[in-house]
């Protein structure tokens, strides 16, 4: 192949792959946003959205709370120690 045709081929390949890269970048960004949104769910953030505590359990890893708003239900683990100033959310997950 001539140099000019190799350059044209590389340029064509780059142009053809750009949409794939854009789609991939958007997918990664969306996944990161979803992950970040999931991580930021706390008992307080759910209470601020008018969820109500409808149940509580004890478990080997700490107390758990069930929070509900209409047909949406979340299960959250919380933690505290005698030295802590507040009960804090370990994590919350939607119940499906």
Condensed summary:
The chain is of the alpha+beta class and 96 residues long.
Please compute the radius of gyration using only Cα atoms: 24 Å
Number of structural domains: 2
Stretches where pLDDT falls below 50 for ≥5 residues? 22-37
The portion of residues assigned to helices is 40-55%
Order of helices and strands: HHEEEE
Number of strands: 4
Order of strands in the sheet with most strands: 1-2-3-4
What structural class should be given to the helix and strand makeup?
A: alpha+beta
Number of helices: 2
Main sheet? 4 strands, antiparallel
Beta-strand percent range: 25-35%
Mean pLDDT: 76
Distance between the termini: 58 Å
Shape: globular
Walk me through the topology.
Blueprint: H1 3-39, H2 43-48, E1 52-57, E2 64-69, E3 72-79, E4 88-94
Antiparallel strand pairs: 1-2, 2-3, 3-4
Structure report:
It is built from two helices and four strands. It is of the alpha+beta class and 96 residues long. The longest helix has 37 residues. It is globular, with a radius of gyration of 24 Å.
Q: What structural keywords apply?
A:
4 strands, 96 residues, 2 domains, 28% strand, globular, 2 helices, alpha+beta
